[in-house]
Amino acid sequence: MSHNSGAILVLSGPSGAGKSSLISKIVDHIGPTYFSISTTTRAMRVGEVNGVHYHFVSVEEFKREIEEEMFLEYAVVHGNYYGTSLGPVKKALKEGKLVIFDIDVQGHDAVQNRFGDITTSVFITTPTLGELKHRLHNRLTDSQDVINNRIEMAKREVQRISEYDFLVVNDNFDEAAEILISIAKAARMKIPTLQINEFIQTWETS
Ligand code: 5GP
């Protein structure tokens, strides 16, 4: 049976938990992937590149894309719009790739509704709230207001960990990366419901 029909790995968790660094660390060890580049209306941070970290657009542009139904899902996070375009995701799935999303809990909901049978989800967080505060302050990229916002959001998001398949506590970075590699490899083996039904039919009649 073919396992190369593509699958989805959703990564959620507070900003500052180390999702981006973990993705960079594991991406060369998990086979063909497509990292979904979200569209956002938030301001670009120092070191970010348009089209690499996000597609940065104006609120008007974002609203136009909503009207044109270009998004698989979108949400307002920390007062800014964030959305995942459907087109590139479908293409990557067709190519048999593991599509990786770094999206919030609302986005995870939407992906589960649409692609639940091929989705594996992971919540990544720091060992404690104190450690998250420490990391956000050390990042030096955000104002105190933004940091407070992210902390409040993190407190709400952790309440929904049980909606995820896995919890990865990013205490030891290398260990967390190893765990994530195992999860990503297993995620790729998820089979769409349709293919399972076809398999059963063939299995019974052969
Ligand atoms: P940041 O501004 O730190 O890059 O991201 C803030 C939050 O927005 C993170 O929790 C991240 O997972 C989430 N996020 C990024 N892109 C998307 C998206 O396309 N959809 C949704 N729902 N959330 C997103």
Radius of gyration, CA atoms, in whole angstroms: 18 Å
Number of strands: 9
The whole-number mean of residue pLDDT values reads 94
Number of helical stretches of at least 4 residues: 8
The separation of the N and C termini measures 14 Å
Hey, roughly how much beta strand do the residues contain? 15-25%
| Helix/strand order | EHEEEHEEHEHEHHEHH
What compounds are bound to the protein?
Answer: guanosine-5'-monophosphate
Instruction: State the shape.
Output: globular
CATH superfamily of the domain at 7-36 and 96-205: P-loop containing nucleotide triphosphate hydrolases
Reading off the top of the CATH hierarchy, the class of the domain at 7-36 and 96-205 is best stated as Alpha Beta
SS-based structural class? alpha/beta
What is the annotated CATH architecture of the domain at 7-36 and 96-205? 3-Layer(aba) Sandwich
The portion of residues assigned to helices is: 40-55%
The name CATH uses for the topology of the domain at 7-36 and 96-205 is: Rossmann fold
Low-pLDDT segments, ≥5 res: none
State the major sheet: 5 strands, parallel
Quick structural summary:
This protein has 206 residues and is of the alpha/beta class. Helices cover 44% and strands 20% of the residues. It has a domain at 7-36 and 96-205: Rossmann fold, CATH 3.40.50.300.
What does this structure look like?
- It is a single chain.
- The protein is an alpha/beta fold.
- The chain has a domain at 7-36 and 96-205: Rossmann fold.
- The chain is built from eight helices and nine strands.
- The strands form two sheets. The chain has a five-stranded parallel sheet, with helices on both faces. Strands 4-3-6-5 form a four-stranded mixed sheet.
- Helix 1 crosses helix 7 (173-187) and helix 5 (129-139) packs antiparallel against helix 6.
- The radius of gyration is 18 Å and the shape is globular.
- It binds guanosine-5'-monophosphate.
- Residues 12, 15, 38, 42, 73, 75, 77, 82-84, 102-104, 106-107 line the site of guanosine-5'-monophosphate (5GP).
